[in-house]
Every structure is written in structure tokens, then in C-alpha cells.
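Review session, final week

We close the course with one last complete record, chosen because it touches almost every idea we covered. It is DUF2388 domain-containing protein, a protein from Entomomonas moraniae with 99 residues. Go through it on your own first, then we will talk.
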Amino acid sequence: MKYLITTLGLMSAICTLPALAFESTTDIVVRSLYATQQVSSSFSNDKIILAAQGDAATFIATKGEIRGAHIEAAINKIRTQYPDLKITDIELAEAILAQ
């Protein structure tokens, strides 16, 4: 009986883990997309942000290893105006590129 209860407990834990992982991943993606949309709409006509689009493409393609002057300026501007923004520089570059 003791083994049956332990086995049932383990089985239920194993079945709920994928659902929890999916929920966590979805939550992160939704928050990231919301923040990216917020940044995109706020800077749609900003000259610094628009000038950074070429650098943003390079930045994304190299996974952040090549940081041009324009993308640095744009990221610094966004981080200064939105200090609570909890997205990565890659996500910011994607938002800039989406302009």
C-alpha cells in the first residue's frame, strides 16, 4: 500500500511538470512580447532608433557579439527612458528592427 501511494504521487508529479513548464515558458514569452511592443510603439519615429536598424540586424545575427555605435545608442536611450524594462538587449534589437 505504501508503495502504491508513493507511485501514484510520483506519477501525478510527473504528469503536472510539463504543464508547469509550458505555463512558465508562455508567461516569459508573453511578457517579452508585451515589453517589445511597448518599446516599438514608443519609438516609431525616433531618429536614433531608426538609425540603429542596420546595427540591430547585425547584432541579432551575431547573437550580440557585434555591437555597432547606433545600436548601443538606441539601447542606452531605451534603457534610460524605461529603467524597469525587463527584456534582453537582443529583444530590444528585435523591437528596433521591427520598426
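Two points worth writing down before the exam:
The first helix runs from residue 2 to 42.
The radius of gyration is 20 Å.
Good luck, everyone.
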